[in-house]
Amino acid sequence: MAKSGIYQSSLTKKYVIALAGLFLISFLFVHLGINLTVLIPESQDTEAKEIFNKAARFMMLNPVIKVFEIVLFAGFIIHIIYGLILQIHNWMSRPKRYKVEGWSHTSPFSKFMIHTGMIIFIFLIIHLVDFYFKAKFFEGAESVWYDGEEYHDLGALIIQKFQNLGFVIFYIASFLFLGFHLHHAFQSAFQSLGLNHPKYFPFLKALSLITSIIIPVGFTIIPVFIYFQIV
Ligand code: HEM
Questions:
Q1: What is the pLDDT of residues 95-151, one digit of tens each?
Q2: Mean pLDDT in residue range 150-168
Q3: Looking at the predicted structure, is the pLDDT value of residue 2 above 90?
């Protein structure tokens, strides 16, 4: 392939990685919002975890969300495969290792994207086995009844999982790596899409920093509050 062809295909991959990544970030905000409802205590009108269990069932059964779910999993797979290909291509095309070890023009976050990405991938496999597949395919969650209707008690499953300190630490460590990954990913996605006008770039950088803090801190609240029985 001609040099310009390789450059072109690498640009296309960056484009696809960026689009899939931005889509995944928007999923994370929705997922975080729904998961935080597991912390809502019981009130006069609702039992504890009722709002979460109802939202989780809506997400599981709604036909529009089911299509979204297919797009979501496709987004993850495309993002991971293209990211790996791009990384291997970068390794192969790098002429020499830097003379001074540990020195690079790039930020530490950007240097470790492939590593933080792999940690998130491992987290995701364990997470899906523990929650998603249990809820969907195996009888992993108990039933609970609201207004005469049966629901999967995913809220109770989350509470039960986060009684285990090792599990809590593993989750929080994974959220930390997710934050590192997002910190570079968000601004880099805009750059790949060519939306890096100098006028807006400081704003996008700030947005990227805020996102990389809100997402991990927001998710961390859940295991911490449950483990220490704050609600
Ligand atoms: C405390 C943190 C988290 C909790 C309690 C949690 C809980 C759950 C539960 C109960 C499910 C199955 C039911 C459902 O679909 O809503 C699920 C699915 C899923 N989770 Fe999480 N999650 C957490 C963090 C994360 C993070 C950080 C990611 C991504 C890096 C993630 C990715 C997913 C995906 C891809 C699915 C399947 C798609 C879906 O149906 O929504 N989760 N999670």
A1: 655 444 443 446 777 889 999 999 999 999 999 999 988 777 766 678 899 999 988
A2: 94
A3: no
Residue whose CB lies within 8 A of the most ligand 1 atoms, among 68, 131, 157, for a mutation test: 131
| Ligand 1 atom nearest to CA at 174 | 27
* Residue 195: band (very low, low, confident or very high) from pLDDT cuts 50, 70, 90: confident
Instruction: Determine the CATH number of domain 3-95+106-227.
Output: 1.20.1300.10
Residue spans of the domains in the chain: they are 3-95+106-227
Ligand 1 atom having least distance to the Cα of 220: 1
Q: For 11-27, how does the pLDDT look when each residue is reduced to its tens digit (9 = 90+)?
A: 888 899 999 999 999 99
Q: Which amino acid is at 158?
A: I
21 Cα to the center of ligand 1, angstroms: 16
Nearest Cα residue to 153 out of 50, 35, 231: 50
Residue 61: CB atoms within 10 Å: 9
For residues 157 and 131, what is the distance between their CA atoms, to the nearest angstrom? 8
Mind giving me the DSSP string for 175-221? Answer: HHHHHHHHHHHHHHHHHHTT---TTTHHHHHHHHHHHHHHHHHHHHH
Q: Which atom of ligand 1 is nearest to the CA of 56?
A: 16
